[in-house]
Amino acid sequence: MGRLAMKLGFAAALALALVAASRDARADDVKKQCASAYEQAQVLRKERKLQKAEEQLAICSEKACPLFVRRECAQWAKEIAASMPTVVFEVSDASGKPLANARVLVDGKVLKDPIDDAEVAIDPGDHVLRYELPGAEPIEQGVTVREGEKARKLSILFDTSAPVAPPPPPPPEGSGGGPPVAAFVLGGVGVLGIGAFVTLGVLGKSQRDELRDTCAPSCSEDDVSSVRTKLILADVSLGVGVVSLGVATYLFLSSGPSKPPPAAPAEKARLWFDMAPRAGGGSVLLGGAF
Question: Residue 17: in which H helix or E strand, if any?
Fold first, then answer.
């Protein structure tokens, strides 16, 4: 019986010690929070962020904080409340009728939604106000608010008689913004084809006339084949040039109005054009990447 009583007494003492230690740990956490809020409130007040300073002063004014901290925080809270500016928003249409479905944003953050005639606290300093009303263009207003201002009226008129023009519809997918790249490429191919026709035709005709004057009708097969190849390639080049210019003209005429080029430069089109003699004739090779 004596041993049981000793064990129970030891357990009770241990529990009390743990409870006391837990209370001490919580007390230390509270003191740290009080000290942090006490310091942050002073910094925020110097930066004229009075609303955030009020939040910190509410923390360090709690009963769990040391007495001297509570007293100073409570005094600072009264001073900030006296110097905190307040504004009243008045939003109406051109006839003076109040618009209750408007809202206002201060520096990009919603402050009042919807707007009413109640005073609203706002930090001192320069601000950008944005008034928004369904069906109307938003209105922005720059204001400078001074400490101690109370119930300052900020008025805005919306012209609700003129409906907001809807944004232009996006262009349909696949619609052209000016002549496509292929039109320019085919135009270049057409020019090359016509140029090759002229060059090869002149060379072939000149060489043929020379053979007639020097060795006809007993000219070698190689000489005759060379003349034949040039004339065939000239005819092929003419066909390629005419077809390419025709297609390019169609693409130019059927394309829509030109648009400004995109921000990122597009990859340039690449084109290659080659002609080669073959036994009994010749070949034209045309290729590219668009």
Answer: helix 2-46
